[in-house]
Design a protein that fits this description.
The complex is a heterodimer of chains A (114) and B (113).
Chain A: E1 4-5, E2 10-14, E3 19-25, E4 32-38, E5 45-51, E6 56-59, E7 62-67, E8 72-77, E9 86-93, E10 103-104, E11 108-113
Parallel strand pairs in A: 2-11
Antiparallel strand pairs in A: 1-3, 3-8, 4-5, 4-9, 6-7, 7-8, 9-10, 9-11
Chain B: E1 4-6, E2 10-13, E3 19-25, E4 31-38, E5 42-49, E6 56-57, E7 64-70, E8 73-78, E9 87-94, E10 103-104, E11 108-112
Parallel strand pairs in B: 2-11
Antiparallel strand pairs in B: 1-3, 3-8, 4-5, 4-9, 5-6, 7-8, 9-10, 9-11
The chains are: A mainly beta (114), B mainly beta (113).
Chain lengths: 114, 113
Amino acid sequence: DQQVKQNSPSLSVQEGRISILNCDYTNSMFDYFLWYKKYPAEGPTFLISISSIKDKNEDGRFTVFLNKSAKHLSLHIVPSQPGDSAVYFCAASGDRDSNYQLIWGAGTKLIIKP
Amino acid sequence: DVKVTQSSRYLVKRTGEKVFLECVQDMDHENMFWYRQDPGLGLRLIYFSYDVKMKEKGDIPEGYSVSREKKERFSLILESASTNQTSMYLCASSLTGFHQPQHFGDGTRLSIL
């Protein structure tokens, strides 16, 4: 039973347009969410995070939105650039029973078309 | 910048062999993690450690063990490798406490023949 779901395995977006990556979760105890980006043959790198006390966090071209009532978060990339082509993972934490664990989604492969 | 180094990028071993994957971090992080990544499944936690000589099972510890004799080094051991352990293995480290981002190595692609 996946607690963190990324329902789109892949997404193709034109360069310069907005990319929107989605993530749904089922555990209402999650209180912190992170997005990671992964290039082929490299480990994931931390991109941006959001605490459940906020509904939006922005860092340059990247914005994460959190809708707690819907248990949904999204990552917006504006404008999309070719270097954004990568796999994006959503992860959640906060269930104290899980100690330091992050629960990960399956990832969404973003392809930016020139 | 945090540097997490995994000893091998690619490794090919045979069924039944004992396999060691090594990971070293240079930022004095308390926590270290071993994941495996498989297509469509995301990252699944095998084991983690929050201190020297301490270890905790993750979601899929069966067939694996770990060792943390020094703070900077965390080893993953496949006791008797099987073909279903063919995967990408990722090591990560973080500072202690909740909500600390994890920093990853570049991964080891392990093939068990």
